[in-house]
């Protein structure tokens, strides 16, 4: 009998991309998959995605961001999903549903799947480490940690112990989209109620990066958990001798001040491993004052760099910085081909906010970090990179204070001269060369066996 898996994505490209890749993985295992997407993301689906065998999409009403269940758009989305499932259940031409894999950001859809006796698996589009640390901070009541105190987490290594700096952060930083910040560390994680009732968990990670944290989450929640990533576009698994071009990943055009060819030409002119890549996410960034401090550090640093400046941030840049740094710096406005830059042999460091997809891209391509987390899971992603797999440095030890030019300049110098760290990053990269991680292949196989037994 043919069986179908529903995959429900949350909002934003950082949620959509992993869900599309997950559908492709299941399609290659001969499952039918239906990707359920918020209507706001329909234009982001490349035509090539629907050309995969046994893969289809359906949309539900949405705004541009998550809304409470009481919102009229949320209520309409629930009606859309229920009507779609009811129609399928009455049509014998559709494959029988096996399960729904639900991004916890849209955990409200669980109740609708349950109406049709469809079991739910909760998906984290970020890594298991951040989830594990958020869970531990809540369970250990970390809000009362004092300066100088270290609070060990049973089941996790000593270097991941909670400290005062893990809890003391800047006031909530809203995203460029206007949404408020996440709950404070030590509060109940917002995803806890969203995964209740799930039969299993999936994480967008692999054992080579944070398998220990996947196991911790399985033990803590009491249900199976698997690392099935990193769910990056398949082009990332090419040989490192082949650059990852944006046009090969998606047909979607992006606005940028530099073409891919111009970026390649500039990178080709720089020595191997000499370029610092500076990029924050499209949703968050440093404060206005910190942008000026960053610009000053880049101007005074001797090495070459690429700096991606998002729309709305240009006003914070010193006037005429492009001309003052001349060919030593390439300042790209709006969008930049991040995968290509990280994949290029001249790139030797990444100053990053440690969003999960960016973190995994850099790890896959062997680029060490200067970690500058801004909000949410980025802080614990940075802790994973710095403390556990040891392929990065923090831009400063106290991220609750304004990051200064001297912090950035010193961080750049330390990062770009740390040969041991570069070696560790290169050793980790080898595990990803030309192939999706073997542990994640095994995890997907284990999930297939589990869900087949669960529904028979």
Automatic annotation (TrEMBL):
Region (Disordered): 56-78, 169-191
Organism: Citrus x changshan-huyou
Ranges of Pro residues composition bias in the record: 182-191
Family, per entry: Belongs to the UDP-glycosyltransferase family.
Source lineage: Eukaryota, Viridiplantae, Streptophyta, Embryophyta, Tracheophyta
Domain of life: Eukaryota
Record-given protein name: Glycosyltransferase
Keywords linked to the UniProt accession: Glycosyltransferase, Transferase
GO molecular function, a single term: UDP-glucosyltransferase activity
Pfam families according to UniProt: UDPGT (PF00201)
Cited PANTHER family: GLYCOSYLTRANSFERASE, SCOPOLETIN GLUCOSYLTRANSFERASE-LIKE
């Amino acid at each position: 009998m043919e069986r179908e898996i529903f995959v429900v994505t949350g909002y934003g490209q950082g949620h959509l991309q992993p869900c599309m890749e997950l559908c492709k993985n299941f399609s290659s295992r001969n499952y039918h998959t239906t990707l359920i997407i918020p209507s706001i993301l329909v234009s982001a689906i490349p035509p090539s995605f629907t050309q995969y065998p046994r893969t289809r999409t359906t949309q539900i009403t949405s705004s541009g961001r998550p809304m409470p269940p009481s919102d009229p758009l949320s209520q309409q989305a629930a009606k859309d999903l229920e009507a779609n499932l009811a129609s399928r259940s009455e049509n014998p031409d559709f494959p029988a549903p096996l399960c729904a894999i639900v991004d916890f950001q849209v955990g409200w859809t669980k109740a609708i799947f349950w109406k049709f006796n469809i079991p739910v698996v909760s998906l984290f589009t970020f890594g298991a480490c951040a989830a594990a640390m958020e869970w531990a901070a809540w369970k250990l009541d970390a809000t009362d940690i004092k300066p100088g105190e270290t609070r060990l987490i049973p089941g996790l290594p000593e270097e991941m112990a909670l400290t005062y700096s893990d809890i003391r952060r800047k006031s909530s930083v809203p995203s460029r989209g206007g949404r408020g910040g996440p709950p404070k560390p030590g509060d109940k994680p917002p995803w806890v109620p969203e995964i209740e009732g799930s039969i299993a968990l999936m994480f967008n990670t692999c054992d080579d990066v944070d398998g220990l944290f996947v196991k911790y989450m399985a033990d803590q929640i009491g249900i199976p958990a698997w690392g099935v990533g990193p769910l990056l576009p398949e082009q990332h698994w090419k040989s490192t001798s082949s650059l990852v071009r944006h046009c090969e990943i998606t047909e979607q055009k992006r606005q940028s001040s530099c073409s891919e060819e111009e970026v390649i030409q500039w990178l080709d002119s720089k020595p191997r491993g000499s370029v610092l890549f500076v990029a924050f996410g499209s949703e968050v960034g440093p404060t206005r004052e910190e942008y000026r401090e960053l610009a000053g550090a880049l101007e005074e640093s001797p090495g070459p760099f690429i700096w991606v400046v998002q729309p709305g941030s240009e006003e914070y840049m010193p006037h005429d910085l492009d001309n003052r740094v001349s060919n030593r710096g390439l300042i790209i406005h709006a969008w930049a081909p991040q995968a290509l830059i990280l994949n290029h042999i001249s790139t030797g460091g990444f100053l990053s906010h440690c969003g999960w997809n960016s973190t995994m891209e850099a790890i896959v391509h062997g680029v060490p970090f200067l970690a500058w987390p801004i909000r949410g899971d980025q802080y614990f992603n940075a802790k994973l990179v710095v403390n556990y797999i040891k392929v990065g440095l923090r831009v400063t030890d106290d991220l609750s204070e304004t990051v200064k030019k001297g912090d950035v300049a010193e961080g750049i110098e330390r990062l770009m001269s740390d040969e041991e760290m570069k070696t560790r990053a290169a050793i980790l990269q080898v595990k990803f060369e030309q192939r999706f991680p073997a542990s994640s292949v095994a995890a997907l196989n284990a999930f297939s066996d589990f869900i087949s037994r669960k529904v028979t």
